[in-house]
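assembly run, all chains below
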Amino acid sequence: MYPFTYSRATDVADAVRDKAGHGASAYLGGGTNLIDLMKYNVEQPAHLVNVAKLPLSKIEDLPDGGLRLGATATNADTAWNEQVKQRYPMLNQAILAGASPQLRNAATNGGNLMQRTRCYYFYDIETPCNKREPGSGCSAIGGYNRIHAILGASEACIATHPSDMCVALAALAPTVRVSGPNGERSIAFEDFHRLPGELPQYDNTLTEGELVLSLDLPEKGFAKNFTYLKLRDRHSYAFALVSVAVGLELDGDTITDARLALGGVAHKPWRDKSAEEMLKGQPATAETFGRVAAHVVANAVGQGSNDFKIELARRAIVRALQQATEGKQQASDAFLNSNP
Amino acid sequence: MSQLLTSTPHRGGLPAPVPTGPVRLHINGQTQTLQLAPWTSLLDALREYAHLTGTKKGCDHGQCGACTVLVNGRRINSCLTLAVMHEDDDITTIEGLGTPDHLSPLQQAFVDHDAFQCGYCTPGQICSAQGLLNECRAHSEAEIKELMSGNLCRCGAYTGILNAVKEVVDKQ
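ok done. output:
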């Protein structure tokens, strides 16, 4: 790890000012991803601004009926928050499907959005990587790419976003409140992360120096018919190969509203609004689910080692829609929601 | 204003002199002021500066759980956090959970259930299990397995570890 200077911000304005006053600087939340990347010299900030103790850790009701998740609330505190469990259980399930208890205790909500890809070439500074070193090439294309993207990739980058939490957030569609040198603004969650295109070095649409303040969830939480299905190489403590977040509203057997987002398949949490539109007004049947799943993966492209993901995603979407219809969770995680 | 620990950022060439600053840590009920660089992980601060070598360095990347300690009663990976981030926090390591003459209930259960072979992961396993007890969210074997999944055991002593943790959970 390269040497750096460190400061602890006293408030948001102080944090923004402090970061702007240093060149290659970074905000430090829980550190679970940033410090790891610094150990590999993938990230080399000359200055860290610790924002973890800023007063942004509250989870509180919003006047419009929504719920505000503070940026520095830990993933664990967010998952186990009573309001989250009751009103946004899909988020509870997604967070608990990710990482380990230790990591969830340290990792913050803002940091979860900001975490970087786990592409092995991105982590290995000896290999070309357009995300780490723009213009150097992509080692994953034509290389070993089992964990890589099947949707929305580019010729410059086929990395995936690793978060579970963000897949549920994509389905729940909060706004992301940020503050920076030019003041405060809100970004729709679907516009926060981006596809790689020709600029894979940018994971998101934040401008220089902007700091995440909160995630503001809308009132609608799909608390009855939801699921977060995560498929991975081992039962726990592994990144998703494919994950699916589903929220449905049903009138009898008819789907009246739907949300569908995938993880592990693209450079950003992959919400498919056209699939959601296809679901609306349709009967919640295997025939409907099969048709929608085929639609979602119709333009999927395999890279060789990850070809299996296309079929895996198709089947996972069908299963997730069935689970959500039945109000069921993935067996391995369901118990975590039944605790008092 | 921000509190600033000063160092000389450096890119390539000879390493910069290592600037350190006083960092006050509360470890196992005792307050210590250590001279640390900003980039010293909590794990390295505990082992190399506070000389508490019970906490183990396994992967050093948050993947194995051997470095698990309790910060304000909550388990975290001490390898993925900086010591300077924890001024005013209460840090508990394996040395703070019991003594050779008075083992903590978890330590005793690990002995009784033969919950280790080489023992390298054990301090992390026990600190993690103590965090699990503090959280009060694991009751069944399935829940304990899931909520202990952040701790790997290369020897494969999982059956004993599960039995040891279950025994203490059941008495809780």
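The two ends of chain A are 43 Å apart (CA to CA).

The longest helix of chain A spans residues 308-326.

not gonna interpret more than that til we talk
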